[in-house]
Each structure stands twice: as structure tokens, then as C-alpha cells.
Specification:
By secondary structure, this protein is mainly α. It has 22 helices and 6 strands. The termini are far apart.
């Protein structure tokens, strides 16, 4: 079999024709145009999504956040969250980060947050490959990161609230990504100082996430607990000890942040508003209702076919990655790759269990607030959907490795290159189809956002002009998008957040009207 064939569908290796003394030159890996061309699809999709962020305008909770940031600054926002709203002080800091810039802050948020998600998943993929002793052709890691980012941000039923609405994104979209970012130093650590830095990062990140999102905290605790349990099956050694100590530090940070949040006056006030005390959440009837709701959510998630793009890109990574197949004991009693894949199967099964348990617990936590609507409130699913996307990608990697050059032969040797080529072609096609499937809804959403931005800007200018002339009471016409709450929604029946709109424009009151000025 030629070395070009064994290099896989996304890498080429050349022998160079011989060097000094007739010795062949070392094989050198280089990128193949196929990977770069395929990466254009998710990157183009993300580029369009980021560009559409210019059409974002404040709505719902934004109306109430902006006047506080403008009039009272960061301390006022922290006090609002900690003393009155929900106790999420880290959430308040992130709100100040974009709210201090007013409307432009909302417009830039999708670009900045999307770049953070892409960058973290890119770095996480590269670090995981390095820790596993694998190498991949240039361009493959960006392809994986971009496809996973697109699936995570755009495959949910409500992309506007998931990605474009900053008030939701910081709690349920960015929060799990920041949790993943805390893992990167651990994967990169090679020295004692590196492990100390990784532990310090885990502690700080744990406290921050504990005061940012209860649901992401739940997911992180379940995942960390799963890692500790599965680590009991690995051989004792310094590596296992360091991972276990890192997990313990991360759990301590999460516990500290959760205690700060749970004991805050704002969290107590929120529990009182929704009747969400611990006893009511753990009531057998409530647990049963949450299980049924999670079952419906799973039905939606598992039938959202663009998530298959994460599996497909994982397959491509598994096909092109090299290394990591040497048995840990140095023996050759098993064919290359078999022991590696057996060791990888347990984490996949553990990850699946962690996803199911954490997803259910997230529903248990959020159901007192959303009630039966938790089944359709897809904006709060991001806390466990990122784990789902990463799990699908990992499964794809294992599938790709199973038919890669180092795999146990599943077909006669002469037919294996053809099998790998066919698998790569199918996976590439699925990636393209997944991006196309996400593009249609995104373009329709852009049309809605464009109409809303035009109407919002027109009404904003009119309200500011009349307020500057001394008006104290003015009419306001709701301009919703993506299911966002607006003052006088439901044909004027829901007043909230009309008082916040009045404060934003320095008015005493806004009244309901169906006609834009």
C-alpha cells in the first residue's frame, strides 16, 4: 500500500526521493486542499451569522439592564443582580461588559461571543489531540471547531435567543464554553508549574461559573464526578493523581460560587417569586414531570439532523489523525489501535450517561421557573447541548479511527483505501448538508431581524426626539423578533417591561399602541 494512500483523505506524506547517502527523507505531512475547501462551508455560515449581529437591538431584559448600567454603573448592576434579581454576580459583570456600550454593545456581542466559542473549541480540539498523542493535518482542527460551533450556536429551535440575545447567551451559551476553556490548561500542562496553573484556573473558573449559571454548574459537576469515577479504572500513576486533584479543585470552586449565589438575597427573592425552593423541586411529582419534559426535549434534539455535522467532522478527524495507537504496556499482542479504541469506548459511554443525567438535572432546576414551557424554552438548553455536540464529535472520531489506516482490518487490505475514501466522501457530504440545513433558517431569521431593526430604529429616534422636547408620556408599539418579549406583548395584555422602556427614554410612562410613529 502506498504511503499517499495511508496518509488518509486529508493528508499527504511524501518520501522526497531520497537524501544524502540514498536515505529517504523523513515523511512530511502537509495540508490537502480538500480540508480547506470543506472548512469554507462552516466558516462562511459563521461569518454570515456574525455579520447579522449588526441587526440586533435591545429587547426583553435588555430594556431593564441598559438604564441601570447607564445611570448606576457596574456597582449598580452588581447590586441589582445580587440583591434583587438572582444572585448571579458573574452574570452582572458580563452584562456590564456589553451593556456599557449601549446598542452597539448588543450589535457587537454576537461577533465577540461567537469568536470566543470558535476560539475555545479550536484550542480545546488541538489540546485534546496533543494530550492523546495524535496529530492531524493542517486545516482539520479549524474545520472541526467551526462545524461544532455552527452546530452548537445555530441548530437550536430558537437561534435568536440562543445566540443573538446577550442576556440569555451569557448564562446558557457562553457559560458552558467558559467551562470548557478551563480544561485547556490541564490538557496542555506538562510540568509541575503547568499543573499548578491549571488548578488555579479551575478554581477561579469554578467560582465564576458558580455565580454565572446554575445549569452549567450542574453539568460541570456531573461531568467532573463522571471523570472521577471513570478514573478509578485507570492504572494508578501521577497522571491520574493530577487529574483527580484538578477535578477536586474545580468542584471546590463550583461549590464556593454556588454558595455565594444560593445564599444571596437576590437568589432568595427569585426562589420566592417562583416558589422554587429545594423541597418543591425534589418533590416526586415534580421530578416525574421534569423527566417527561426532558424526554420531549430529547425528542427534539435527537431529531435535529444538522447535529450530524458534528459526527461527520469527527469522522474526518478520526480518518486523518495519526499516532496514539501504541499499547501502553509496549506489547504487540493486539493489533494496532484495538486497545486504544477499547480504552476510548468507556469515556464515550460515560459521556453519554453524563449528558443524560446533567440534561435531566438542568430541567429539574429550570422547570420551577418555566413550568411546562421548559419543553419549548430551547434557549436554556445550551448548558447541556455543548456536551452533546462534543460527545457527537468524539463518537465521530472513534468511527473514523475504526476505518483509518491504523485500524483493525475490516476489509481485505486492497479494499481498505476505497472504504476510507467512501467514508470520507460521505462524511464530507454530511458536513456540507448540515451547513446548508442551518443556512436556510438563519437567512429567514436575518429577514426578521432586518425588519425589526428598521422599525426599532425608527421608533427609537421618534421617542428620543419627543422626550428631548419635554414629553413625559409617549406611545410605544411592540417590535418583537424571535419570540422575544416586548412591552405590551400579547396584544397589550403583558405590560412588562414597559416601565424599563420609560426609564430608558427618560419618560414617566409609555402607553400601548399598535401603530409605529
Amino acid at each position: 500500500m502506498s504511503t499517499d494512500t495511508d496518509a488518509g483523505p486529508y493528508a499527504e506524506e511524501g518520501t522526497g526521493g531520497g537524501g544524502a547517502g540514498g536515505r529517504p527523507r523523513p515523511a512530511r505531512r502537509r495540508a490537502v486542499p480538500g480540508a480547506a475547501v470543506l472548512a469554507l462551508f462552516p466558516f462562511a455560515l459563521l461569518g454570515a451569522a456574525f455579520w447579522f449581529g449588526r441587526l440586533v437591538r435591545p429587547g426583553a431584559d435588555d430594556w431593564c439592564f441598559l438604564p441601570v448600567v447607564r445611570d448606576e454603573g457596574a456597582l449598580g448592576m452588581l447590586a441589582k443582580f445580587y440583591l434583587h434579581d438572582n444572585g448571579r454576580v458573574a452574570n452582572a459583570l458580563l452584562v456590564v461588559g456589553y451593556g456599557a456600550f449601549g446598542v452597539p454593545g448588543h450589535q457587537w456581542f454576537p461577533l465577540v461571543s461567537g469568536a470566543v466559542v470558535l476560539g475555545v473549541l479550536w484550542a480545546l480540539t488541538a489540546a485534546a489531540l496533543g494530550r492523546a498523542g495524535l496529530t492531524a493535518p493542517r486545516g482539520t482542527v479549524p474545520l472541526v471547531a467551526a462545524t461544532a460551533t455552527a452546530a452548537f450556536l445555530l441548530a437550536t429551535p430558537d437561534t435568536y435567543k440562543t445566540f443573538y440575545w446577550p442576556a440569555n447567551s451569557v448564562s446558557h451559551t457562553l457559560a458552558p464554553v467558559l467551562a470548557c476553556a478551563a480544561v485547556i490548561p490541564l490538557l496542555r500542562a506538562r510540568t509541575r508549574r503547568g499543573h499548578a496553573l491549571a488548578s488555579a484556573t479551575a478554581l477561579v473558573a469554578g467560582v465564576f461559573i458558580g455565580t454565572l449559571s446554575e445549569e452549567t454548574t450542574v453539568v460541570a459537576c456531573v461531568v467532573l464526578g463522571t471523570v472521577l469515577l471513570t478514573g478509578l479504572r485507570t492504572p494508578p500513576g501521577p497522571g491520574r493523581t493530577r487529574v483527580r486533584s484538578w477535578c477536586a479543585v474545580a468542584l471546590a470552586g463550583l461549590a464556593t460560587g454556588t454558595a455565594v449565589l444560593y445564599l444571596s438575597p437576590g437568589a432568595r427573592a427569585r426562589r420566592a417569586r417562583f416558589g422554587a425552593d429545594t423541597g418543591s423541586m425534589l418533590d416526586p411529582e415534580a421530578l416525574g414531570a421534569a423527566l417527561r419534559a426532558f424526554g420531549e426535549i430529547l425528542g427534539t434534539v435527537l431529531t435535529t439532523w444538522p447535529y450530524l455535522g458534528a459526527v461527520a467532522v469527527g469522522v474526518l478527524l478520526g480518518l486523518s489523525a495519526r499516532g496514539g495507537d501504541r499499547p501502553v504496556d509496549g506489547t504487540t499482542s493486539e493489533p494496532a489501535g484495538r486497545s486504544s479504541r477499547r480504552r476510548s469506548l468507556l469515556p464515550v459511554l460515560a459521556g453519554l450517561l453524563a449528558f443524560l443525567v446533567s440534561g435531566y438535572l438542568c430541567v429539574v432546576v429550570t422547570r420551577p421557573v418555566f413550568g411546562a414551557d421548559v419543553v419549548t424554552a430551547s434557549r436554556v438548553w445550551g448548558d447541556f447541548l455543548l456536551l452533546y455536540v462534543l460527545l457527537l464529535t468524539g463518537v465521530g472520531v472513534l468511527l473514523g479511527r475504526a476505518v483509518g489506516p491504523s485500524a483493525v482490518p475490516v476489509a481485505p487490505r486492497a479494499r481498505r483505501p476505497a472504504l476510507r475514501t467512501a467514508v470520507a466522501a460521505v462524511a464530507a457530504a454530511v458536513c456540507v448538508l448540515a451547513c446548508a440545513g442551518l443556512a436556510g433558517p438563519l437567512l429567514r431569521l436575518e429577514t426578521e431581524m432586518s425588519v425589526r431593526a428598521r422599525d426599532w430604529d425608527h421608533q427609537d429616534r421618534w421617542l428620543r426626539d419627543r422626550a428631548a422636547r419635554g414629553a413625559r408620556v409617549l406611545p410605544y408599539a411592540p417590535v418583537p423578533v424571535g419570540g422575544m418579549l416586548e412591552p405590551f406583548g400579547g396584544h397589550g395584555r403583558r405590560v412588562w417591561p414597559a416601565r424599563c422602556v420609560a426609564r430608558y427614554y427618560h419618560l414617566d410612562e409609555v402607553t400601548y399602541t399598535t401603530r409605529l410613529p
